[in-house]
Backbone:
């Protein structure tokens, strides 16, 4: 079997699995799997760019995805009335003061001659800066959070179309990635893994605790939809043309409207995925991409040829993280709400890694395939596990503790299965399903 | 790039997750030891008409023969890339020997792993990374005696008598010593097993001429105890002066063989390898 | 100015909790550093190994409690600890045999092992949730305090109380014993030295007749013992929750890196540095400062630098600062 035939077949199998879900379970589930599969595929492209093409170990995917979600709130929700005048500007001023403090400290650290005076100056700047920052920051956030805390209590957003939030999410993630990369890749040796692991936790902590920003754990609901494309169920159910079409398909208007909205998202996501995939492929075939691979395969030689390896690594790290940010923004748009406590590293960092490794690190199509396959399994392992547990426990008496424990625990088979799949692929097909050429 | 997918780290250099310090680089020819059998006669240690290379790679050695007998110092010399170290590694089992054989003390050991050769009495001092830098001198010697279950304090005393400086620095980390002292630790470590033959891969690489002379003196001293020594040397002239037997290798083949004195006197050898 | 009361308040809210937390982090970081030094990769499954060991301790404790066995004023979990360690050892040795050994034979690059450990992490995480569920489990019993705040006040007549929880006392004692044993083992025994030798120079260790598989096996056994101990102590001090152990991975990694990966001494120092910075920076200093400040100048706010939710940020910033000034951590080059 030739390469293209095999790969097409693999994609066809995964597509078939999703269709099968539609026929045997429900089309709603099938399209949900498809939509999250598309988003996962974008995340996988981002991680694959970093790991597969530059060997950068990013274990903070979750953080960038969450930043994308945050961007959606900041861009597309309406501003909270009175929040800006109450404390919004104060917060901005405080953040600027904080940034100025850090910049001043860095300047002193780099410009001033080394010695006790320098150390003292840095400490003085940091302490004074910190207290000034807190003095401006604390009353401002108190003022913002006091505004209608039951439904708002945050500064709100810019009330722009939600589609604009997707690139904004990418930008926000890119900015964070630049800061992390600049620091972690700039150290004498590379400490990217621990840096990303840490920053992801910090980003989530900020999103959970800074209520003025996006309401923290109180969540933000009712994020606007990219309405012209996907529409709203209620509107569709009133549209006689739509009802007629639904009828023709043999569906009741309610089901048809939810399916239609979800398919609208699918279309949008598909466009973004194809665009990013095309860009990633073009980039990798360009001289820039060839250089990236040259660096990966022989860093010493590349360095000897005058390539600035750290700079290239920073570039690709920022790009990959931006892609994860876009995916994060798309996900929050799809959910229609931002739930900071839903961001778990196993789900948003390590599962994406499983997707990339299973699909084939170093191959964009592999990453996409892996994303769909793993997401499909992530969703379906739970019902399969439940079915399996029911099968195992059929012989046991009803009400036995073991039986109920096994059935209750079926949900946790998911993590176990993901680990097993990762280990099996690493062991028996270490280059993944679609290996790098 | 290697064929093994597990060797592909994609150029990752992340120190927070991957530790390359002290990682093994040895590529033994055999993972598990094969059969050995008794052979009559011949020198104490001989790599007999060895042909072979690393793994699946091309042949580097061609019908190369190296031997050393009791009480002798045998020296392998030759130009850069002649396969000197490779020949010694072949004798030690780190090279796939496709034709020929290695025999030690009347036994064919061609199919043994390097570790098992150590058990049979081969002491090997690699050219680089030949000490445990983070451990004290004494601990280095203890590790040398790891395979011995008997009391090795006697042997340690002998090593300290041979290298008195090591006695003074016994509690110092070996990595803090000078180049010459490190080599003494390396040789001392190998002697701790009470080997039947000692193999040294360029023991004087990177040390000053004075230290080199001292090291050669010590090596002669070791050999006086009756221990056969097989040595690869970059400094051909000095090495041949102390050698009972010399092998000049060129491109993995024996070019000249003779006693040290014969080779030093040979005009061809002088012209080509000793700079006139 | 009331220096004595300030000191007691400081001990009660900062020193004692930080010492206990530091001991737990140090034990965790020791396991990470040993794997890093000897197996040469960062083990992402370490938090879940801790959770697994602690889970067995919880189950055995429940069994003992049900059987009416108790350990007097000490928590029953201490009696369960040896069984938990044993169970954890069995788990990691099976994992090594089924998973890691293959990659050693292949001489896989460390970063591949890191990815493998992610798979193991998923499996162990799933296993723990499958067996005991994802919820909080309490299993500490026995006397709650060695010294309670009220007794302390009665004893000394001071306004501030100093409470030392039994779990904190036990944590420190067990940690000291474990660390002393580990250092004795690594520095004084033949096997311990052979582990250091293997970490320092694998090839030369091989040439010295050291059996790598034995070194690896003993490493896993020690790591399982350390991880279980750390997990049980943490669970006694706070509570047992699988996800929390997974989250401990960050401060544990940070401790090991701050101390210098591969250095046991560094792991301990790192654990305490991280613990003390976390506690001091997230503690509201109002009380202590009120005692210290001159009349009329008492602070009005809480004087809390960061909310406790940002403790991860603290570990992270400490890590960055250390790496900026000492790129290899505080204790460099001291291989295991």
Residues:
């Amino acid at each position: 079997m030739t390469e293209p035939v095999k790969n097409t077949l693999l994609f066809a199998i995964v597509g078939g699995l999703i269709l099968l879900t539609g026929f045997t379970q429900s089309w709603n589930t099938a399209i949900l799997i498809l939509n999250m599969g598309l988003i996962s595929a974008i995340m996988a492209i981002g991680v694959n760019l970093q790991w597969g093409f530059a060997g950068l170990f990013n274990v903070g995917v979750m953080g960038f995805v969450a930043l994308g979600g945050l961007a959606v709130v900041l861009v597309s929700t309406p501003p909270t009335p009175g929040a800006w005048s109450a404390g919004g500007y104060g917060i901005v001023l405080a953040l600027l003061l904080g940034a100025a403090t850090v910049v001043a400290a860095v300047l002193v650290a780099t410009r001033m001659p080394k010695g006790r005076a320098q150390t003292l100056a840095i400490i003085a700047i940091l302490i004074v800066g910190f207290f000034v920052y807190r003095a401006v920051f604390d009353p401002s956030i108190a003022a913002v959070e006091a505004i209608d805390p039951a439904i708002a209590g945050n500064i709100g957003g810019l009330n722009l179309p939600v589609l604009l939030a997707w690139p904004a999410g990418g930008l926000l993630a890119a900015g964070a990635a630049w800061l992390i990369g600049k620091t972690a890749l700039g150290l004498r040796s590379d400490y990217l893994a621990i840096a990303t692991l840490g920053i992801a936790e910090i980003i989530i902590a900020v999103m959970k605790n800074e209520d003025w920003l996006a309401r923290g754990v109180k969540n933000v609901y009712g994020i606007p939809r990219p309405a012209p494309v996907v529409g709203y169920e209620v509107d569709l159910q009133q549209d006689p043309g739509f009802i007629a079409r639904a009828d023709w398909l043999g569906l009741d208007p309610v089901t048809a409207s939810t399916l239609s909205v979800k398919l609208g998202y699918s279309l949008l996501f598909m466009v973004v995925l194809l665009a990013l995939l095309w860009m990633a492929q073009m980039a990798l075939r360009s001289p820039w991409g060839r250089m990236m691979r040259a660096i990966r395969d022989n860093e010493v030689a590349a360095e000897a040829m005058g390539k600035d390896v750290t700079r290239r690594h920073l570039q690709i790290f920022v790009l990959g993280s931006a892609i994860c940010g876009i995916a994060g923004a798309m996900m929050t748009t799809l959910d229609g709400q931002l739930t900071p406590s839903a961001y778990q590293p196993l789900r948003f960092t390590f599962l994406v890694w499983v997707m990339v490794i299973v699909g084939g690190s170093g191959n964009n199509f592999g990453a996409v395939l892996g994303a769909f396959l793993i997401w499909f399994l992530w969703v379906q392992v739970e019902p399969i596990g439940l079915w399996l547990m029911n099968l195992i426990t059929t012989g046991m008496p009803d009400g036995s503790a073991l039986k109920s424990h096994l059935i209750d625990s079926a949900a946790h088979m998911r993590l176990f299965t993901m680990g097993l799949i990762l280990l099996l692929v690493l062991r028996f097909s270490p280059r993944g399903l679609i290996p790098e050429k | 790039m290697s064929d093994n997918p597990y060797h592909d780290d994609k150029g990752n250099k992340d120190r927070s997750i991957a530790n390359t310090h002290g990682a093994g680089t040895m590529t033994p020819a055999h993972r598990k030891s094969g059969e050995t059998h008794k052979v009559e006669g011949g020198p104490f240690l001989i790599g007999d008409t060895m042909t072979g290379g690393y793994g699946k790679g091309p042949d580097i050695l061609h019908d190369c023969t190296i031997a050393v007998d009791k009480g002798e110092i045998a020296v392998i010399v030759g130009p850069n890339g002649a396969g000197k170290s490779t020949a010694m590694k072949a004798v030690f089992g780190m090279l796939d020997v496709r034709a020929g054989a290695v025999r030690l003390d009347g036994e064919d050991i061609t199919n043994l792993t390097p570790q098992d050769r150590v058990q049979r009495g081969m002491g090997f001092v690699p050219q680089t990374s030949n000490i445990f830098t983070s451990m004290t001198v004494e601990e280095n010697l203890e590790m040398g005696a790891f395979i011995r279950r008997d009391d090795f304090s006697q042997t340690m005393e002998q090593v300290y008598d041979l290298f008195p400086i090591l006695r003074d620095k016994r509690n110092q980390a070996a990595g803090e010593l000078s180049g010459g002292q490190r080599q003494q630790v390396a040789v001392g470590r190998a002697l701790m097993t009470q080997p039947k033959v000692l193999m040294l891969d360029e023991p004087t690489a990177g040390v000053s001429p004075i230290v080199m002379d001292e090291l050669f003196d010590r090596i002669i001293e070791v050999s006086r105890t009756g221990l056969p020594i097989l040595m690869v040397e970059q400094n051909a002239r000095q090495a041949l002066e102390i050698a009972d037997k010399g092998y000049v290798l060129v491109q993995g083949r024996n070019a000249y063989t003779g006693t040290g004195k014969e080779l030093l006197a040979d005009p061809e050898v002088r012209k080509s390898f000793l700079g006139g | 100015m009331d220096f004595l009361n300030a000191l007691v308040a400081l001990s009660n809210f900062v020193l004692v909790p930080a010492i206990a937390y530091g001991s737990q982090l140090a034990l965790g970081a020791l396991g990470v550093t040993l794997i890093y030094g000897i197996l040469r990769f960062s083990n992402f499954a370490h938090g879940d190994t801790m959770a697994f060991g602690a889970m067995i301790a919880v189950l055995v404790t429940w069994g003992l409690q049900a059987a009416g066995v108790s350990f007097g004023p000490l928590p029953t979990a201490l009696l369960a600890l040896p069984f938990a360690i044993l169970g954890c050892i069995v788990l990691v040795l099976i994992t090594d045999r089924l998973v890691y050994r293959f990659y050693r034979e292949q001489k896989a690059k460390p970063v591949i092992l890191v990815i493998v450990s992610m798979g193991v992490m998923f499996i162990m995480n799933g296993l723990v949730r499958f067996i005991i569920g994802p919820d909080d489990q309490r299993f500490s019993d026995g006397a709650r305090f060695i010294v309670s705040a009220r007794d302390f006040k009665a004893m000394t007549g001071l306004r501030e109380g100093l409470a030392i929880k039994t779990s904190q006392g036990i944590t420190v004692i067990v940690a000291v014993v474990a660390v002393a044993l580990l250092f004795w083992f690594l520095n004084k025994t033949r096997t311990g030295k052979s582990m250091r030798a293997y970490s320092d120079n694998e090839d030369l260790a091989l040439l010295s007749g050291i059996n790598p598989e034995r070194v690896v096996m003993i490493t896993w056994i020690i790591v399982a013992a350390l991880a279980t101990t750390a997990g049980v102590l943490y669970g006694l001090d706070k509570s047992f929750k699988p996800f929390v152990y997974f989250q401990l991975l960050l401060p544990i990694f940070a401790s090991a890196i701050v101390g210098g990966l591969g250095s046991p001494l560094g792991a301990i120092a790192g654990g305490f540095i991280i613990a003390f910075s976390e506690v001091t920076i997230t503690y509201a200093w109002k009380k202590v400062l009120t005692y210290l400040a001159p009349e009329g100048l008492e602070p009005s706010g809480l004087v809390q630098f960061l909310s406790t939710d940002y403790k991860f940020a603290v570990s992270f910033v400490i890590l960055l600062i250390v790496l900026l000034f000492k790129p290899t951590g505080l204790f460099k080059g001291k291989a295991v």
